[in-house]
Design goal:
The complex is a heterodimer of chains A (about 260) and B (about 270).
Chain A: H1 3-35, H2 43-55, H3 58-90, H4 92-105, H5 114-121, H6 125-149, H7 153-161, H8 166-203, H9 209-218, H10 222-251
Helix pairs in contact in A: 2-10, 3-4, 3-6, 3-8, 3-9, 5-6, 6-8, 7-8, 8-9, 8-10, 9-10
Chain B: E1 12-22, E2 28-39, E3 44-48, H1 55-63, E4 70-75, E5 78-79, E6 87-90, H2 103-113, H3 118-131, H4 147-159, E7 165-169, H5 177-194, E8 197-202, H6 205-211, E9 214-218, E10 226-231, H7 243-273
Parallel strand pairs in B: 3-8, 3-9, 6-7, 7-8
Antiparallel strand pairs in B: 1-2, 1-4, 4-5, 9-10
Helix pairs in contact in B: 2-3, 2-4, 3-4, 6-7
The chains are: A mainly alpha (about 260), B alpha/beta (about 270).
């Protein structure tokens, strides 16, 4: 390990790991010395339960069901939202035409649509994917359009005087210039997806982390509840880190959004 | 009006160019009226004038961002219809650079868009960065470099594309005084080696005398036009302390002083009327 890597480990990763250790230590102290209740299990008990559920395959199954639903709905929402956002940012006519839709629908939270989704699609995968796509698409549209509109006109003018065609300007200038804001939209949408999936699975599902939380409540399986909370926190954290890395990569190391 | 005597046909010709805008109150505002100018290949033409005299409008029409409302602009015999790689622009603000690309990739951009193969464009970009004094900075991103260095990338980016004319819109106006002086000297050196045709917009007499082979002094707006052209005949590097420099400065200063006063009076009357 050379000096640079060592420095990075010391200044970057060590504080991070310390922070996590502190989080678990606080949890342990509060649970064991302050709360002293079976209703608030300490981290070791939760980890033991998590290992048990992992060994039996239950945890992996429940978590992968939820994460697959998030992935499918998120990808669907993103693949609809980015093109629409790019079009709305590029053509003011389309922006005016579509704004009534986006401005009205984005204020209806996806959890409010759970009943409708279940009536339309049943309690299977389709309703969850629909809800997550719905919660994703408007945030992505708004951020993408804002990203395109905030491109400095000189960036586009420079490309024209350097000999780029309109198609090249779109792909090599407008898209990368808007990318930090597009990724910021994706990052917020991913956070929402976790909220949506838990709510939807609690109300109407036979599998998933949300369902695990709900049955945990019904049967007082307090440790199982904590295991699913822990998995949600860790998965959300991992997804968010991926977006931060991507934003920094596109926006440069002095990017303000990351 | 044009005092230069040249046997070459002009590279660039403005014929009776006019430009008016529709103002917010609905009244048409005539920014430029009856503008005529010839620029010969190899000229470094500085267009000098007070704020609001329409010099940026002239550059903007030449670049092809805007069309004249009357008259025509011809480059090498062809009427200008829009933007083209023939007319590269160095902007005042470095917001025109691409922060997701390195200095080298920024300089390569035009060549890449125009389909020049990778080896050729890389070689040319490296060479161009060396010419503008950025050897060794190829892998840095613009936001890691100082204001002066960013403007060097802009200059290299346009020169790598080999335009027929280089358009510069007050490229050093946002720099601090020290860096501005340095960049003027550097641009003079680069131009002496390469003799590319330049149209340079400025409001700074010093800058115009340091850089130009010709200085066109604009009248104050509205309905602005060219008041006259001063030819700067100082070879090689130029110093502000040279007596010939000071002579040219005085000559240009005398021409522009009335226009600055006029433009100030116009602004005062505008604000009094508002």
């Amino acid at each position: 390990m050379n000096n640079g890597t060592l420095h990075k480990v010391l200044t970057h990763y060590v504080p991070y790991l310390l922070g996590f250790a502190l989080l678990f230590a606080t949890w342990h102290i509060v649970a064991v010395y302050s709360f002293k209740s079976v209703l608030f299990p300490p981290p070791l008990a939760v980890l033991r339960k998590a290992a048990e559920l992992t060994a039996s395959g239950v945890l992996i199954e429940q978590a992968s069901v939820s994460l697959a639903r998030i992935a499918a709905g998120f990808l669907l929402g993103v693949s609809i939202g980015i093109p629409i956002g790019l079009l709305m940012g590029s053509f003011s006519f389309l922006k005016k035409l579509l704004e009534p839709f986006t401005e009205f629908l984005r204020f209806i939270p996806s959890v409010a649509l759970i009943s409708v989704a279940v009536i339309w699609f049943g309690i299977g995968e389709e309703s969850k994917i629909f809800l997550i796509a719905y919660g994703t698409v408007f945030i992505v549209i708004l951020n993408t359009a804002a990203g395109v509109l905030s491109i400095h006109p000189d960036k586009l003018r420079a490309a024209r005087t350097l000999g780029a065609s309109p198609r090249q300007i779109f792909f090599f200038v407008a898209l990368p210039a808007a990318m930090p804001e597009i990724l910021t939209g994706l990052r917020i949408a991913m956070g929402n997806s976790f909220t949506t999936i838990v709510a939807a699975e609690m109300i109407a599902a036979d599998r998933g982390l949300g369902q695990m939380l709900w049955t945990g409540r019904l049967f007082m399986l307090i440790e199982e509840i904590f295991v699913s909370l822990l998995v949600l926190g860790l998965a959300g954290f991992a997804a968010d880190r991926l977006f931060r890395v991507a934003i920094t990569k596109f926006g440069g190391k002095y990017s303000v959004v990351a | 009006m044009n005092d230069m005597q040249s046997s070459l046909p002009p590279l660039l010709t403005f014929s009776d160019v006019g430009k008016s805008y529709q103002a917010l109150n609905g009244i048409a505002y005539q920014a430029i009226r009856g503008f005529n100018l010839d620029i010969t290949e190899g000229d470094f033409f500085c267009l000098l004038g007070p704020t609001g005299c329409g010099k940026t409008t002239i550059l903007s029409m030449l670049a092809g961002f805007e069309m004249p409302t009357s008259g025509s602009i011809r480059l090498a015999g062809e009427t200008i219809q829009g933007t083209s790689a023939d007319r590269g622009v160095v902007f005042q603000s470095h917001d025109s650079l691409y922060p997701w690309l390195t200095a080298l990739e920024n300089v390569e951009f035009g060549l890449r868009m125009r389909g020049v193969d990778k080896a050729t464009r890389r070689e040319r970009a490296i060479q161009q960065l060396r010419i503008v004094g950025l050897a060794g900075q190829e892998k840095k991103h613009p936001q890691e470099l100082s204001g002066g260095m960013k403007q060097r990338i802009q200059i290299a980016r346009v020169l790598a594309n080999r335009p027929k004319i280089l358009l510069m819109d007050e490229p050093f106006a946002a720099l601090d005084a020290q860096t501005r002086n340095l960049m003027q000297q550097e641009l003079r050196r680069i131009w002496l080696e390469d003799r590319v045709s330049v149209l340079f917009i400025t409001h700074d007499i010093d800058e115009a005398v340091t850089l130009g082979t010709h200085i066109g002094v604009m009248q104050a707006g509205p309905a602005s036009n060219l008041k006259g052209i001063v030819r700067v005949e100082i070879d090689g590097e130029r110093e502000r302390t040279q007596s010939s420099f000071i002579e040219h400065y005085r000559q240009v200063h005398a021409m522009i002083r009335d226009e600055v006063d006029k433009s100030r009076r116009h602004e005062l009357s505008q604000s009094a009327g508002a």
